[in-house]
Amino acid sequence: MSTKGSPQLCIDGFPFTRHIVKEDTIYWRCIQFRALRCPARHRQRRSTGALEVVWAKHNHGILERRKRGTLRDILLQRKRMNQKSAPSEVKPQPTTSAENDKPIPEETYAAEYLLAELEDFVLKND
To answer: How would you write 54-89 as a 3-class SS string?
Structure first.
């Protein structure tokens, strides 16, 4: 059982969670499906209990529990490896608030818009 109460199955050291239950079939998917988009799937026949491979290849190794914040690093590394060089575009941000057309205070502008631009730039160029 997972910590949230979902049944789990361990196959070759990889944990799977129950995904779909149909009349005679239970579909299991890798627990890294959501975080890493792992395609590994298995199918279990309810009548016989036999496991069938739907997709055997994982896109990751056997993972121990990740420390907080490491998923972001993993995803950034993958993005760097898969990213093709493309010019980055910086979107202009408004200097007035939409509600009343009053100028946004400089501190608020810097905190909200410039920081967001900087984060986007860092993520695109890493």
So the answer is: EECCCCCCCCCCCCCCHHHHHHHHHHHHHCCCCCCC
Tell me 90's DSSP state. P
119: three-class secondary structure by DSSP:
helix
Overall pTM > 0.90? no
- Separation of alpha carbons 104 and 9, rounded Å: 54
Nearest partner of 16 among 6, 25, 3, judged by Cα: 6
Q: How confident is the model over 51-69, as pLDDT tens digits?
A: 888 988 998 888 777 777 7
Q: Which CATH number fits domain 1-83: 3.50.50.60, 2.20.25.240, 3.40.190.290, 3.40.50.620?
A: 2.20.25.240
pLDDT tens per residue across span 22-54? 999 999 999 888 888 899 999 999 999 888 889
CA–CA dist 52, 62 (Å, integer): 20
